[in-house]
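Thread: sanity check for a docking pose with magnesium ion

Original post by kr_44:
Hi all, I'm comparing my docking run against an independent structure prediction. Below are the sequence and the ligand SMILES. Could someone generate the full complex and paste the structure tokens? I mainly care about where the ligand ends up relative to the chain.
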Amino acid sequence: MKYTMKIYSQEVEKLIITEPKNRLIENVLGLGEESGEVLGKIKKLIRDKNFSKGEIIKELGDCLYYVTAIANALGSNLQEVADENMAKLKDRKKRDVIQGSGDNR
Ligand SMILES: [Mg+2]
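Reply from moderator J.T.:
Ran it for you. Here is the predicted complex with magnesium ion included:
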């Protein structure tokens, strides 16, 4: 099955098991954990020359799950996150500030 961002967001919501009062912090901690797992796969690629695209894709999917869960918890959705992010990046590119640092450049 191919998931649109809307359907994916709805399916993520059906999988949330954390009680509502702890949901946001659990989702944020989950994103941190899964981000670390991506880092671990890349570390092993550098250290052991052991590259597994499939394993990295699985961990990126876990990150996507938590990004989506957080967006949902905030009353947003994955589509809005993607749209806002692309608008920000295209604006930075247009103004030639895609490099550098700072959230609001
Ligand atoms: Mg994982």
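The mean pLDDT is 94. Hope that helps with the comparison, let us know if your pose agrees.
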